[in-house]
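sanity check this fold:
=====
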Amino acid sequence: MNPVPSPLTFSARLAAIAQRFGIGGRAPRQVLERASRLQLPFQPLPVPPASIWWERGAPLHRLVDLPRDALSGPVQDDKQAARAALMGVVETHRRCLSRFDLREVDGLSGDDPDTGACARFEDYVAHLPHRRVRIISYKDFVKAIGLALPRFPAVEPVALRQASWRGERLYWAGEQHVEAFASAIAYARFRGLELVAPAELTHYRLSEDGVRALDRRYHVLAMPHQAWNDPAFMRLLLDTGMPYARLSLLRAAASPEFLLLPKEDAQATALGAGLRLAGAPDVVAYLRALENSGEDPRRSR
């Protein structure tokens, strides 16, 4: 936790933040000061790891099709406005590829706690606690790729995914026989076997305009799960009747939730500014940093 600043520095920072966000009036300034003094276990948001698993890291692709009930909060209109802003953050582009070499794929759907740290299919296959697919011969290889992609190479386009915040890594979107798929790809790379098939690639990308619009309208902060049981924070949030919305996106146990506070409301703006002073991670800044942090699995081959 950040050390408590000296009174002079603290007052100066409060004044600067209030001026920056145009926070005037006694009540919003009180909210700003009280929020800035909250002692909550804020933690930095995670940078997506160099993992073969699509769901390991920030699942920002879920923002594209947020269900209407994805956000929580007291007022339906506030939740729907926040949902609309979030859904503009990520955009998708689809490409149909008539001939694609599947040896370029190095990612799988879902997640696996036992092999989550693996960065390549070769590592994944080697570290499986219980191997069900072993490829010794070309016949084994044909059987394995046939399990994952029946009738290969006469298959429907292979569904692939890619996300700008995960670098150049390509993920297979199939959910069945993932061990067989990864084993076959690793074997084909090792033996220099061409694996060409039609493919449909869905590319997820953070929208500069969408992120800018979100930042213009909202403070978006990552709140630790303990915040929702903290009396001081909950009084600030509820007693004033300010608008807000919550989104649980990361899904892992004890993961932070995103709190959206509209900047058009003076008290919500004051709370957002105060929480940032207290150490709450700024989700918009996090999104912008992600664009420059994508890893490239090809560097490790």
